Amino acid sequence: MSDETLLELSGLRSGYGAETVLQGVDMTLGQGEIVAVIGRNGVGKSTLMRTLCGLLKPSAGRISFLGRDVTGDAADLRARAGIGYIPQGRDVFPELTVRENLLVGEVAGQGRAAPDYETVYKFFPILKERARQRAGTLSGGQQQQLAIGRAMMGNPTLMLLDEPSEGIQPSIIKDIARNVRTLNEQTGLAVLLVEQNLDLIVSIAQRGYVMEKGRLVATLDRDEITSRDEVRKHLTI
Q1: Which of 125, 146, 180, 207 has the most C-beta neighbours closer than 10 Å?
Q2: pLDDT per residue as tens digits for the range 37-61
Q3: Distance (Å, rounded) from C-alpha 28 to C-alpha 89?
Q4: pLDDT per residue over 195-204, tens digit each?
Q5: Is the residue at 57 inside a domain?
Q6: Which helix (H) or strand (E) is 83 found in, with range?
Q7: Residue range of the domain that includes 35
Q8: CATH number, residue 155
Q9: Is 237 among the domain residues?
Q10: Residue 208: beta bridge partners?
C-alpha cells in the first residue's frame, strides 16, 4: 500500500431507511492504489460505493479523503474534491449525445483542472467517433466507456468503479481493464473496484477486501488478489 493514505473509513455504518447494511466498515486506500472489494451478491458492496460518493448518508462512522473529513459532504462536493463515481448500470444520460455527457463530467473538475478531452479520447477513441450520437443508442460496452470517460473529465484522484463488467462482452472488459491499469500507471489515479468478474479482479487489483453481511472480514494481499483460486473462494461463480 502507498505510504500516503488517500481514503480512510472508520466504523462506517449506512443503509436504506431503517435497514442498516454497512455494519461498521474500516478501510484504508493509499494514493495510487487499485483495491478491490469482493464478495457474494447482496453483502453491501454497492451500498459502500453509494455511501462513499455521497448518495447515501452514513448513520455512523467517518470518511476521510485526502486528510479531510468528508462524512457530511454532499455528492457534488465529494465529486469536486476528486471522487469520481461510475455506478452499477452506468447511468449515462440516454437522450444526451456522447459529447454532452462528457460536458456534464466537466463540472466536477471546475476549479481544479481544465477539461482534457484528448486524454479521454486517447483511452476511448470510440467516444470521439460517436461524439454526436445519443448515449442511449450505444452498446452496453460503449456506455461503460462513456461512463468512465465522463468521470475522467472531472480529473478525479479516486475513481469508484461499481461492477464495471456487468452486461459487457469479454473483449470490452479486457479493454476496460487495460485502460484502468494504464490510467493508474500514467496518472496515479487510485481506484476502488467492486466486482464479481474473476478475470477483471485478478488482472487489475493490487490488493483487496472481502465483504460479508456488511462487514469487511478479510484482507487480500497482492499474491492473494491475483490468485484465481483464492479470489474464487469469495465469489459466487
Answers
A1: 146
A2: 999 889 999 999 999 999 999 999 9
A3: 26
A4: 989 999 999 9
A5: yes
A6: strand 83-86
A7: 5-232
A8: 3.40.50.300
A9: no
A10: 36, 220
